[in-house]
């Protein structure tokens, strides 16, 4: 067999032989190989027309099970001693759904009882938490009320409460500055705990009017926290809407920070108080939630005289 015959028969060309051919010889060889492929295809088509396409064998079929006697095995319901009668089968069909429904009802009852138990446990937990908070409030209030009650001039609890000593007010702005620098800034008040820099909502000793100017045209829920001029503490200035504002006093007590009043939640840090009221309303009636903080817009910032110089310089560098 010649090299050309072998190539046409196998349809394969060695790489060494192909590299030895020039372009014209390669084209001629490819044309001959294509013609041979067409010839083989035509020959195969003619053979299939003469012989017909091969039929595929079907694998599907039925084979009867036979018994020991070689006959088709047959089972008649009820003939075997262990077989159930028709009456028993019908009775089971009736009773099975009933039993299933009873089981479902039992499971639903268990789920309901478990939910009631969890709800009761949650209610007990909240009651215990409320009792602990009331106990703390009572202890804190008793330290002021008991000395007043021991006064012989106080004839009732109402009079005793009226006679309670009021917390001292700051004497001057300089006293507030000294207090904040000495006591508040070192413990992290007004700072973001992550950066140890003034929080976005924190402002210095500014007046009520100045706070409302900063909050002007801001949406409902906008707020800022400023150092109070009236008490040893702070004021949360809040946008109610329609050009109205609310100002909530936050007092600094030995246990932490709380809104001025009774039965208030005490927080360890001022930042915790603000974070808490980002979801919990300040008052149940007003539903005041702290949504958007209003920061500094002037340079230097309004707290430049009460915070360390490095914090002021860092903020000024952002403008």
Automatic annotation (TrEMBL):
Keyword Protein biosynthesis attached: no
The UniProt record lists the keyword Transmembrane: no
Keywords annotated in UniProt: SH2 domain
The coiled-coil regions, if any, are none
TM annotation in the entry: none
Question: Do you know which InterPro entries this protein is assigned to?
Answer: SH2, SH2_dom_sf
Limits of the SH2 domain: 201-294
Please name the PROSITE patterns in this protein's record: SH2
The organism's place on the tree of life at top rank: Eukaryota
GO CC terms:
cytoplasm
Supply the name of the protein: SH2 domain-containing protein
Record the organism.
Angiostrongylus costaricensis
């Amino acid at each position: 067999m010649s090299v050309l015959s072998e190539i046409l028969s196998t349809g394969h060309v060695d790489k060494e032989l192909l590299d030895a051919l020039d372009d014209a010889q390669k084209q001629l060889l490819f044309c001959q190989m294509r013609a041979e492929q067409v010839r083989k295809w035509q020959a195969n088509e003619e053979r299939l027309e003469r012989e017909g396409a091969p039929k595929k064998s079907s694998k599907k079929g039925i084979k009867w099970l036979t018994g020991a006697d070689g006959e088709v095995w047959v089972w008649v319901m009820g003939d075997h001693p262990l077989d159930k009668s028709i009456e028993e089968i019908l009775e089971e069909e009736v009773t099975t759904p009933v039993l299933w429904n009873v089981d479902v009802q039992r499971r639903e009852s268990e789920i309901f009882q478990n939910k009631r138990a969890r709800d009761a446990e949650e209610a007990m937990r909240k009651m215990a938490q409320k009792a602990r908070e009331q106990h703390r409030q009572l202890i804190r209030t008793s330290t002021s009320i008991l000395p007043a009650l021991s006064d012989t001039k106080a004839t009732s609890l109402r009079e005793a409460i009226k006679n309670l000593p009021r917390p001292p007010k700051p004497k001057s702005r300089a006293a507030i500055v000294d207090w904040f620098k000495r006591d508040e800034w070192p413990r992290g008040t007004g700072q973001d705990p992550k950066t140890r820099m003034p929080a976005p909502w924190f402002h210095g000793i500014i007046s009520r009017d100045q706070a409302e100017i900063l909050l002007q045209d801001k949406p409902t829920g906008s707020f800022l926290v400023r150092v109070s001029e009236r008490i040893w503490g702070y004021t949360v200035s809040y946008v109610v809407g329609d050009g109205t504002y609310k100002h909530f006093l936050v007092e600094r007590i030995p246990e932490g920070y709380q809104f001025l009043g009774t039965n208030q939640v005490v927080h360890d840090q001022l930042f915790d108080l603000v974070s808490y009221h980002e979801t919990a309303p300040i008052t149940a009636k007003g539903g005041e939630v702290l949504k958007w903080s209003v920061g500094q817009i002037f340079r230097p910032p309004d707290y430049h005289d009460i915070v360390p110089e490095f914090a002021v310089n860092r903020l000024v560098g952002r403008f």
